[in-house]
Each structure stands twice: as structure tokens, then as C-alpha cells.
Amino acid sequence: MSIHETALSAGRIDIEKLTIRLGEGAQAFEAVQALDFSIAAGEFVCILGPSGCGKSTLLGALAGHLTPSAGTLRVDGQAVGGPSPQRGMVFQHHTLLPWRSVLDNVAFGLKMQGIGKVERRQRAREFLGLVGLQDFASRWPNQLSGGMQQRAEIARVLINRPRLLLMDEPFGALDAQTRSKMQELLLDIWGRVRTTVVFVTHDIDEALFLADRILVMSPRPGRFIEDLRLDFRRPRYAGLLTSPDFVQLKRHCLELLRHEEGRELPRLTPLGLPTEHPPLRVAL
């Protein structure tokens, strides 16, 4: 099967009245509360919200690592009952095995499926090419930069051809320039494989740049306060971040999050500076 082949009918998510409680006894609390939403197969959806709002908890439930306390969670009509390679997870920090080469890390999932060495390595090279690491197949993970490690991690997950690609702030530990490049790379890869992507972030710019839809969450217990559908044309480039429509939507998202936190945005001057901002001074 080619990298470019994908079942666009696969990867639909349906969630009804989903509540997840964490902890035990007096320490128990609701992380997310009565969530209702659906995601179409092949959509790229970002979950945006403040730290601690339950974004990662929701992603953990989608991956099958957490059991809901109430409600239903289904992928393609089947209840999620535990982890599966059909629901691939990419974390903020890579999970590559340090004692295996980059090639063998990417091929590891196929090895667990009993696929022979020649075939799995051939397919691993294809996916390394997809993420631009074909020349680093024989390297060890600690010989790669942070961005390259995350590219290898994405290839490691995608080689299993998951219906869902679940990403928990995967670029959060990267510097700004590398993060921007990784966002563009991810969109390029998604444009080819078109798996369903659920991407957790607290970065508004990142969510607006990547997503078809943004589900905005409240502080804990996490609830969805807006389902924002974006119509920015694809492919997307860095220039989008300074367009008037992008800036307007960014402010809207800021207002949503600040309102939920009980704060108001400062009134802006024509220059876009808060009215209480101190005068600008230039040293001559």
C-alpha cells in the first residue's frame, strides 16, 4: 500500500456526554465534563484551551489510555476500549528507543505486527522520506536535533497507518523557527495521508494556522465553549499569520479564553498597543 493511499471513510469520532474524573476519594475531580462533539474523517481539528483545562485528558481518552467516567466515545462507530495502533499518539517529547537506529525506531511498530525485516525497513524508509529524514536512517535518536526527533516520531506513528493521529502539543518544546517549520511540514504530510488529526495546543496562532476547526475549551472542568470553523485556503504559509482575518480571529479566541478566566482584554490603540502600555522610547 502506498503512503498516499488512505481510507477517507475511516477516522470519524463521535463523543456524547463524555465526562472524565481523575484521582480517588477526596482528591477526585472532573477533568472534562459532558462533552458532545463529532469530527469527520480526514478533518484537522485543534483543541485549544488554557493549561489544566483537560485537553490532554481528552486526548488520552481518545488514545484509549483513560477510561471515561460517563458518556460514550466512538471511532468509526466502535467504542474505544483501549490503546490501538489505529489511534497513533505523538507527545511533546519523543518516545524513540535510544538503543535503536532511526530506521529501526520507525519500523518498530511493523516488527510488533510480525512483518518481516526487509519489508518493514523498506516501508520505514518510505516514511522517513515523507518527513525528510531519509539521509538519517542509520543515526541514533540522540544524534538528531529536537525537530528531527519529532519528525522521526511522526513517521514512527504514521507507518501504522492510523485512523487517528493524536498530537499532544508536539512542537511545544521547540524553538519558534523550528516550530514554524514543523507546522508547515505537518500540513504537507497531512495533505498527502489525510488521516484525521486531533491536535492539542494552548497556542492560538498554532491552532489558527493548522486547523479546519478549533474546539475551544473552558478552564477545568473542561467544556467546549465554541466550535470555530476556519475557511483559510490551503496550502497555508507563514504570511497567513499577519493577515487581517487571522488577526481578527486571534483576538476573538483571546476574548473567549479571557472571558472564561474572568478577565477582559485591554482596549487597544490604533497601533494595536494596550491603552495602559507605557510610551515607547528610543535610545539615540
State the main characteristics.
21% strand; globular; 284 residues; six-stranded mixed β-sheet; four-stranded antiparallel β-sheet; Rossmann fold; disordered C terminus; 31% helix; alpha/beta; 10 strands
Describe the fold and architecture.
By secondary structure, the protein is α/β, with parallel strands linked by helices. The chain has a domain at 1-79 and 195-264: Rossmann fold. Helix content is 31%, strand content 21%. A hairpin with a 2-residue loop joins strand 4 and strand 5 (78-79). Helix 2 (102-112) crosses helix 3 (117-130), helix 2 packs parallel to helix 4 (146-158) and helix 3 (117-130) crosses helix 4 (146-158). The longest helix has 18 residues, at 176-193.
Topology:
Layout: E1 13-22, E2 29-39, E3 44-48, H1 55-63, E4 70-75, E5 78-79, E6 87-90, H2 102-112, H3 117-130, H4 146-158, E7 164-168, H5 176-193, E8 196-201, H6 204-210, E9 213-217, E10 224-229, H7 244-260
Parallel strand pairs: 3-8, 3-9, 6-7, 7-8
Antiparallel strand pairs: 1-2, 1-4, 4-5, 9-10
Helix pairs in contact: 2-3, 2-4, 3-4
What is the chain-wise order of helices and strands?
Answer: EEEHEEEHHHEHEHEEH
Rg from C-alpha positions? 20 Å
What is the CATH level 1 assignment of the domain at 1-79 and 195-264?
Alpha Beta
So, the CATH homologous superfamily of the domain at 1-79 and 195-264?
A: P-loop containing nucleotide triphosphate hydrolases
| Proportion of residues in β-strands | 15-25%
Mind summarizing the main beta sheet?
A: 6 strands, mixed
Any low-confidence stretches, pLDDT <50, length ≥5? 268-284
Output the CATH topology of the domain at 1-79 and 195-264.
Answer: Rossmann fold
Helix run count: 7
